[in-house]
Amino acid sequence: MKGIEKFSLKGKVALVTGSNRGLGRGVALGLADAGADVACVYRSKPGDTAELIKQGGQKSAAIQADLSNADPREARRIVRECVETLGRIDILVNNAGIIIRQDIMEFEESSWDAVMDTNLKSLFLLSQAAAEGFIKQGEGGKIINIASMLSYQGGIRVVSYTASKHGVMGVTRAMANELAAHNIQVNGIAPGYMATDNTEALQKDPVRSKEILGRIPAGRWGDPEDMQGAAIFLASPASDYITGYTIAVDGGWLSR
Q1: What are the backbone angles phi and psi of residue 16, rounded to the nearest 5°?
Q2: pLDDT-based confidence at 47, cuts 50/70/90?
Q3: Most buried residue among 22, 83, 91, 193 by CB atoms closer than 10 A?
């Protein structure tokens, strides 16, 4: 395999969580454009991501799951349904996540648990289940975990989210160390400030939005499509010798 062919995902099957909207939708569509068939995991409504993938010429499946339960049986069921529907699994993108904003002194235990279960525990359980599938197939695999700028920073009023995203980077490194022997690469993508539902309140806040844009060298909020290049690279043979690393897609935020 030479040159641009190393970036092709033809013949591969990807499983993307939280693919209904925002970053997950952008990543799922990008992987499909690169040639992958994609299983789209959604929580309540299937949305149009799977249908758009089919219209683009790739196979797709829509899998309903509530990842807030963080149940190992559910994780195995999701991977099993992907394999039964699309024939195999080669790529897992752990994108699903939630954020709850509360002052630290008022932060509720239930809020802490909800964020940690969805953002970190379910990510780990799905990675376990996918890795089992990769090992069974005997051809290696790719796990891509969606981290955050708050994997590097503390943030304000998002203590559980920050803890979970620091955890995502740590788990990414730990899994990379142990799974490399099976030709499984585990990496992360840390999005910067992206124009999604999770940041809607910040975008509408004239003071905070101005502060944020003033620190981004690119001078704009990111778009879900900005995630596609990094995702395709990390899902493809072009990244076979990269593992345990998290790429920031942030318009230069961390360089300031």
Answers
A1: -120, 120
A2: confident
A3: 91
